[in-house]
Amino acid sequence: MSTFSPRKALLAIAAPALALIVAFVVTSVILLAFGDPVVEVWQTILSAPKPRQFVQIVNGATVYYLSAVAVAVGFRMNLFNIGVDGQYRVAAFAGALFAGQAWFPGPVNVILTIIVAMIAGGLWASIAAYLKVKRGISEVISTIMLNAIATGVVQWLLLKVAVKQPGSNTITTKPIPESSQLDGLSLIPGAANKVYTLLLLAILVGSAYWFIIGKTRFGFDLRATGRSETAAVASGVKVPRMVVTTMVASGALAGLIGMPLLFGQDHNYGTTFQAGLGFAGIGIALLGRNHPVGIAFAALLWSFLDVQSNALQIRAGVASEVVFIIQGVILFAVVIAYELIRRADVRLEQQRVARELSAVSPDAPSVEGARA
Amino acid sequence: MRHATKVAAVVAAAALGLAACSSNDTSGSSSTSAGGSSSAAAGKKIVVGIAYGVGGRGDQSFNASAAVGLDKAKADLGITYKEATQVNGESEAATEERLQQFVDAGATHVIGVGFAYAKAIGAVAKANPEVHFAIIDDASADSAGPNVAQLTFAEEQGSFLVGAAAALKSKTNTVGFVGGVATDLIKKFEAGYIAGAKAANPSIVVKSQYLSQPPDFSGFNDPAKGKTAAEGLYQGGADVVYHAAGGSGSGVFTAAKAAGKLAIGVDSDQALTATPDVRDVILTSMIKKVDVAVYDFLKSGSEGKDITGNKVYDLKAGGVDYATTGGKVDDIKAKLDDYKAKIISGQITVPTKP
Question: What percent of chain A is modeled with pLDDT above 90?
Fold first, then answer.
């Protein structure tokens, strides 16, 4: 695995390149079919971001990254937590409510709020975990239902606790105290806006994810369960316990998604809080192949497309929703491309092994064979 | 698994690389647009950036009304404009960025249609003190600024007039109200309606129903729910139902048609904008003239007298009114105009909370 082979590198470039080309062609065809200005659309999307847009890309990616990691934790053991969307909204609401009370001073409030949000997200996810382990209900079904329930519960509770400022028509929780609002980091020169301070949280989460999944007993058990549940059971893994732990961990991570938005931007939870982040995370985890670094690049790509598409209506007269087509096609294409590349990889490997077998002694390729 | 992650890494890298490649030609075009804006400012020409709420120009209601004002300004004042529509569920940063894009594209006047733009208008106005901003339906501290016009409406005053019309026309002594979403804004409509009905007939019974609770805004765009709610009100004895439910209103009209009863429209003169087969059930409409507010803002701007602060479009300013299309209120027009005069003179104060 650690050895570098030019063939693998080439194949690794082929898959995403293919996906991007397919996305480019399909989107262009759709634009042409509807008589939209294709050239202007691509010029807008592929133009160089301004410094402030760089900041937005990083900020958007931060939130997407947390969401995708939350999803990826489940994916690694074949657990499809579709409920990240509901979990992050429940958690963001709970966190905003807690932080707004200002029971603790500045930074302490921030840290405690993050913990509260993780607990809230974990608890919400634990419902699906319980249903799966004790009642055998597919987590796909239960988490989708719980998303809808989360919408209702949060709406109902928000109405109970909402504070109104005169002249406003929006409904929000009490704003968090100024001492707990995170101003941001001036990482990108020339930009008036700032990168979310909680970018650090995303980096921390990514590192922890890499370490726990790749380097610990728990991570090994998790991956083993994902690859083959029967084999995992045979080697002494307690699968139900793994399901509960992983689901709750996924939910707790989902609880972090709203935190950069809460502390760095909105400062409360209300009707204009960003929606749909959990679903975006599913696609990004898929694109990033559940790898901490892969997800980071996927999140950046997603955020890049989001930010760049904002100008489409203004500069090209095309609805920003075009970007949903591009993102959707990339996902489709990349999933298909990964599979095609995997098959090509296997075929090339077999040819090489066959070649070596016919050339030298028959026991030589056994090391390579175990790797494949 | 692992080689796949390398793959993904390269996708993203490639995409970003592509972006970098094309940067040269587009940076050239963006600088020309900046040049264009300064020359436009020198010619004292108004360049408008208008950001619609979800639904956009084609919603036949609130956003469409703003677009009417914009088109009128284009015809009368020779302004040029660029338009954009909010994407459902986007982040606050994306909302702000849209407004900033208008400024970058050379806009001298930026309009946010709907209270969802409140925070963004406040932030972007602060960052661009030389540009003039307007927000519809918000008068909070979030959007306030020395270069911001907060354009709000006295919906309760217009609703008072249609409430009086409903009570005067009711034979069952019962009238109904369907609110889209139970926000304070829609409660203003309800409060005015009730007050108007009671003023015309103190013994009248007013039954109210809301379609959804915030932050669920589906009640503004769910004709089926509107129909069910209106059916309930008609069966409960109401013979006139007023809706303040945006797109759900078409369901209210359908129910009125089926029950052979009357309904009252909102925002636009709906006897002109609703589907032709239900227009005959529309007694009148409470017109909220977003177009007038937008046009005023741009006209003042073109005269160099930009509106700032909260401007309330009430009956006096011609911001709200009742519609006479269809001739169903012709017999009570004198009474309604009498109420109108009393509200304008301050003799009647209409409550804003039910």
Answer: 50
- pLDDT band at residue A169 under the 50/70/90 scheme: confident
Output phi, psi for A291, to 5 deg: -95, 140
- The ipTM (two decimal places) reads 0.80
- Nearest Cα neighbor of B10 from A324, A19, A309, A98 is A19
Write out chain B residues lying below 8 Å of A310, CB-based.
Answer: 94, 97-98, 101
Mean pLDDT of A267-284: 90
Instruction: Answer yes or no: same fold for B37-153+289-319 and B155-288+324-345.
Output: yes
Displacement of CA B79 from its chain's centroid (Å): 22
Phi, psi of A344 (to 5 degrees): -60, -40
**Which fold is adopted by the domain B155-288+324-345?**
Rossmann fold (3.40.50)
Q: Where, residue-wise, is CATH 1.10.3470.10 in chain A?
A: 54-317
Q: Do B20 and A48 touch (CB under 8 A)?
A: yes
Tokens of B94: 């994306």
User: A72-115 pLDDT, tens per residue?
Assistant: 999 999 899 999 999 999 999 999 999 999 899 889 999 999 99
Distance from CA of B168 to the nearest CA of A (A): 32
Pairs of CB atoms within 8 A across A/B: 212
- A289 contact residues in B (CB cutoff 8 A): 1, 4-5, 7-8
- pLDDT exceeds 70 at position B238: yes
Inter-chain touch A289–B1, beta carbons under 8 Å: yes
A199, A200, A206, A207 alpha-carbon torsion, rounded to 10°: 160
| Structure confidence by residue, pLDDT tens digits, A181-234 | 988 888 888 888 899 999 999 999 999 999 999 999 999 999 999 888 888 888
Chain B residue numbers with beta carbons less than 8 Å from the beta carbon of A284 are none
pTM of the complete model:
0.81
Say which CATH superfamily domain A54-317 falls into. ABC transporter involved in vitamin B12 uptake, BtuC (1.10.3470.10)
All structural domains of chain B with their residue ranges: 37-153+289-319, 155-288+324-345
What is the distance in angstroms between the Cα of B67 and the nearest Cα belonging to chain A? 16
Asked whether the beta carbons of A368 and A349 are under 8 A apart, the reply is yes
Measured between CA atoms, the residue of chain A closest to residue B185 is A169
Average confidence (pLDDT) over A335-343 = 83
Name the CATH topology of B37-153+289-319: Rossmann fold (3.40.50)
Nearest to A16 among B10, B30, B89 (CB): B10
| Partner-chain residue, chosen from A53, A168, A320, that has the shortest CB–CB distance to B140 | A168
* Residue B9 Cα, gap to closest chain A Cα (Å): 5
SS3 percent helix, strand, coil of chain B, rounded to 5, is 55, 20, 30
Nearest Cα neighbor of A91 from A231, A248, A320, A214 is A248
Residue of B5, B21, B215 with shortest CB distance to A171: B215
A270 pLDDT higher than 60: yes
